């Protein structure tokens, strides 16, 4: 039985990836940080097959111990401070976890290593935020980086150190440059889930307004359930490499808001939405659109859920959740 260790097991991607690996017959281990991690009970109930291992991306010796204990075939590094807005407020923490955390995990892998015939394979969750103020469109694996936030800067370090350890020490290390990917499990702090949750609550009469920041930025939004398949495929190849994972389609925040309101029949939605400077960022990423041709050709990967389906899936899920909480029927 193959064994996989996932950092960031309590996040959106960690949970989809755990389900995928479990369905492929893996033994799945999840790295859990902190004392009384508030999400552990929820994740254990949702994914009873996952075995938790206590360790922290800020603590090298805990990572070495985790690898020695689990003896994984594959390590997926999805753990990070992942919210761009928070990274501006806690830049040093972001650099430490999202950036240096990658270095610590790579060092731990070098120390523990796996066997000569079966070295540990490593996946790094890189991000389209590394492209930031984009130098070309669409963005591909060779597009130069120009990060626009402490999060983006930390991800550039994580990406570069992954490539460097592959080049320097021959590690089987891959970096997946994933564009924004969403789902009903997306955290409420991200704009997509914030919007679908608010739209559901407005439709149910539980909320009156949705307060947003800049609605002009454009993102290449895909479905997280599709994207974790690309992560796994990267680690099944003969040679490690880096891949862009994206849909190739870009929409503005306003497009997303429009699609979500229209899905519940509130086509005339402008009156429900206001803007507040507190949700604007010190520096913005205006446009992201990826070209995943390499992933299509080498991994045989392509997205299955399109933009409209993604919005519908998220709104429907939030309608169910919010109606159940309020003891209402979904209209
Ligand atoms: P990001 O692409 O990783 O930063 O993902 P987010 O979902 O946090 O943000 C996507 C875009 O939505 C960014 O350009 C934000 O500036 C924009 N945005 C506009 N209003 C909001 C808001 O209220 N919350 C969030 N999270 N983003 C917003």
Automatic annotation (TrEMBL):
- Any idea where the NAD(P)-binding domain is? 5-314
InterPro entries to which the protein is assigned, alphabetical: GDP_Man_deHydtase, NAD(P)-bd_dom, NAD(P)-bd_dom_sf
Cite a single GO BP annotation.
Answer: 'de novo' GDP-L-fucose biosynthetic process
What residues form the membrane-spanning segments? Answer: none
Q: What GO MF terms are annotated?
A: GDP-mannose 4,6-dehydratase activity; NADP+ binding
Q: What class of enzyme is it?
A: lyase
Keywords, alphabetical = Lyase, NADP
> Which reaction does this enzyme catalyse, per its entry?
GDP-alpha-D-mannose = GDP-4-dehydro-alpha-D-rhamnose + H2O
**Cofactor(s) listed in the protein's UniProt record:** NADP(+)
Asked if the record carries the keyword NADP, the reply is yes
Could you say which EC number(s) this protein's record lists?
4.2.1.47
Q: Which family does it belong to?
A: Belongs to the NAD(P)-dependent epimerase/dehydratase family. GDP-mannose 4,6-dehydratase subfamily.
* Described function: Catalyzes the conversion of GDP-D-mannose to GDP-4-dehydro-6-deoxy-D-mannose.
What is the protein's given name? Answer: GDP-mannose 4,6-dehydratase
Organism of this sequence: Actinokineospora alba
Question: Which lineage ranks, top first, belong to the organism behind this chain?
Answer: Bacteria, Bacillati, Actinomycetota, Actinomycetes, Pseudonocardiales
Query: What is this protein's gene name?
Result: gmd
């Amino acid at each position: 039985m193959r064994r996989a260790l996932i950092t960031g097991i309590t996040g959106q991607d960690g949970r989809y990836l755990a389900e995928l690996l479990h369905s492929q017959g893996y033994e799945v281990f999840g790295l859990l940080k902190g004392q009384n991690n508030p999400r552990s009970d929820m994740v254990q109930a949702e994914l009873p097959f996952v075995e938790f291992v206590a360790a922290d991306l800020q603590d090298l010796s805990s990572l070495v111990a985790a690898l020695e204990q689990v003896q994984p075939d594959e390590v997926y590094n999805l753990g990070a401070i992942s919210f761009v807005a928070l990274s501006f407020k806690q830049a040093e923490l972001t650099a430490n976890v999202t950036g240096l955390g990658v270095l610590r995990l790579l060092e731990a892998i070098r120390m523990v290593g796996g066997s000569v015939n079966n070295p540990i394979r490593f996946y790094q969750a890189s991000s389209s935020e590394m492209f930031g103020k984009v130098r070309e469109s669409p963005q591909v694996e060779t597009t130069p980086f120009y990060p626009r936030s402490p999060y983006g800067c930390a991800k550039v370090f994580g990406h570069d150190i992954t490539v460097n350890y592959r080049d320097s020490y021959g590690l089987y290390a891959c970096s997946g440059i994933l564009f924004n990917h969403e789902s009903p499990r997306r955290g409420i702090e991200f704009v997509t889930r914030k919007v679908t949750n608010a739209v559901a609550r407005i439709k149910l009469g539980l909320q009156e307004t949705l307060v947003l920041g800049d609605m002009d930025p454009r993102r290449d939004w895909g479905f997280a359930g599709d994207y974790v398949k690309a992560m796994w495929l990267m680690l099944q190849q003969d040679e490690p490499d880096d891949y862009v994972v994206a849909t190739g389609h870009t929409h503005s925040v306003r497009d997303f808001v429009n699609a979500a309101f229209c899905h519940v029949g509130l086509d005339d939605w402008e009156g429900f939405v206001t803007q507040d400077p507190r949700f604007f960022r010190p520096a913005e990423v205006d446009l992201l659109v990826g070209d995943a041709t390499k992933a299509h050709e080498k991994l045989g990967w392509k997205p299955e859920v399109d933009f409209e389906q993604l919005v519908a899936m998220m709104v429907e899920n939030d309608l169910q959740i919010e109606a159940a909480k309020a003891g209402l029927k979904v209209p």
